[in-house]
Write a structure and sequence with these properties.
- The chain is α/β, with parallel strands linked by helices.
- It folds into two domains: 139 residues, Cytidine Deaminase, domain 2 (3-Layer(aba) Sandwich); 226 residues, Dihydrofolate Reductase, subunit A (3-Layer(aba) Sandwich).
- It is built from twelve helices and 17 strands.
- The strands form three sheets. It has a nine-stranded mixed β-sheet, with helices on both faces. Strands 2-1-3-4-5 form a five-stranded mixed β-sheet, with helices on both faces. Strands 8-7-15 form a three-stranded antiparallel β-sheet, with no helix packed on it.
- Helix 3 runs parallel beside helix 4.
- The radius of gyration is 22 Å and the shape is globular.
- It catalyses: 2,5-diamino-6-hydroxy-4-(5-phosphoribosylamino)-pyrimidine + H2O + H(+) = 5-amino-6-(5-phospho-D-ribosylamino)uracil + NH4(+); 5-amino-6-(5-phospho-D-ribitylamino)uracil + NADP(+) = 5-amino-6-(5-phospho-D-ribosylamino)uracil + NADPH + H(+).
- Keywords: Hydrolase, Metal-binding, Multifunctional enzyme, NADP, Oxidoreductase, Riboflavin biosynthesis, Zinc.
Length: 375
């Protein structure tokens, strides 16, 4: 049975499966795959797969292994074009061909030059029906990190900020203020589990002495790589971040002027140090920093730093997604502005972004914005 509505439903299920390992498969995308078979009574799911932690095995061979011999004549739904090149394992397009599937439905073509339509071509040349473009917009968002890294050599940058109803993140002299509701805090920790890395500036690292790990029960091992931008080598060796480098990876992006003795002390604690060029102000070059973490395999970054890092990334046009946790609390006089004193409602005026979400979490309102691709 072939039906556009059935294709959308099964692709939605494949996307849901693919999200399970988001943040755990870098440098590869977390792909979802479903194999269905229809013997006359309607389609039945006979195999499911999601890219394994570390990026191997891929989703398709896992789904095919679960389906077994029943995959012959079946339909496979895959959230990203099956790979066509030989890596540590064989091409997924060849695995689908050799399994004897009759039909392959994909969401989007893989922009990776090693694939870029060649996976679909292998399938078509074998006489397999290929349908693509099903739930393409949703898949492009799920695989935004992979797409951004392949096309631009940097990760997908997601900015998260908690702010008061009048657009402030804290108060002068008091620093950050507890703004988020418990429900919103849990949501943020969930975001951490689905992102490859979390990034803050040295100001946040010094003022808050954070751990930047996921504190949801049972998900501590899903904590992302922690990245600190530290232009002049100010992060103390006895900071919480450095002390826990053995528990969750810590990368410090710094400039070449940082004291080599401090770099050695960081490294002795298990820290990965990524030296990059400085910009004209002497700070870490943001494009260079993102390129450096991308070169290590990172495809997505959750920015939880303060207004300085947020505004610098916005000014450099390096933000792809923004998530604002807006509290009903008003800070008023003496507030530290998130964006030049603008309230959250002013953000949609930025022509670079489109609002794609507005939900309630406890008493808070969570707004989500997505970068418009240049035409």
């Amino acid at each position: 049975m072939k039906s556009p509505e059935l294709d959308r439903r099964f692709m939605a299920a494949a996307l849901s499966i693919g999200r399970r390992n988001a943040g755990r498969t870098w440098p590869n995308p977390s792909v979802g795959a479903i194999v269905t078979r229809d013997d006359g009574a309607g389609p039945t799911v006979i195999g499911r797969g999601v890219t394994a932690p570390g990026g191997r095995p891929h989703a398709e061979p896992l789904a095919l292994a679960e389906a077994g011999d029943a995959a012959r004549g079946a339909t496979a739904y895959v959230t990203l074009e099956p790979c066509s090149h030989q890596g540590r394992t064989g091409p997924c397009a060849v695995a689908l061909r050799d399994a004897g599937v009759a039909r392959v439905v994909t969401a989007i073509e893989d922009p990776n030059p090693l694939v870029a339509g060649q996976g679909h071509a292998i399938l078509r040349e074998a006489g397999i029906e290929v349908v693509t473009g099903i739930l393409a917009e949703e898949a492009a968002r799920d695989h935004a990190g992979h797409i951004r890294r392949v096309r631009d050599g940097r990760p997908h940058v997601r900015l998260k900020m908690a702010m008061s109803s009048d657009g402030f993140v804290g108060r002068e002299g008091a620093g950050q203020i507890a703004i988020s509701s418990p429900e919103a805090l849990d949501y943020v920790h969930g975001l951490r589990t689905s992102t490859d890395a979390i990034l803050v500036g040295i100001g946040t690292a010094l003022s808050d002495d954070p751990s930047l790990t996921c504190r949801l029960p049972g998900l501590v091992d899903r904590s992302p790589v922690r990245v600190v931008l530290d232009s002049a080598g100010r992060l103390p060796v006895d900071s919480k971040l450095v002390r826990t480098a053995g528990d969750a990876p810590l990368w410090i992006v710094t400039t070449h002027r940082t004291d080599p003795a401090l770099v050695a002390a960081w490294q002795e604690k298990g820290v990965t140090v990524l030296p990059v060029d400085a910009d004209d102000s002497g700070r870490v070059s943001l494009p260079a920093a993102l390129a450096a973490v991308s070169a290590q395999g990172i495809t997505s970054v959750l920015v939880e730093g303060g207004p300085r890092v947020a505004n610098a990334l916005l000014d450099a046009d390096l933000i792809d997604e923004m998530i604002f946790d807006v509290s009903p609390m008003a800070i008023g006089a003496g507030g530290i502005p998130a964006f030049s004193g603008k309230p959250p409602e002013a953000v949609p005026e930025d022509p670079r972004f489109v609002q794609i979400g507005d939900r309630r979490l406890g008493v808070d309102r969570v707004l989500r914005f997505w970068r418009k691709e240049r035409s």
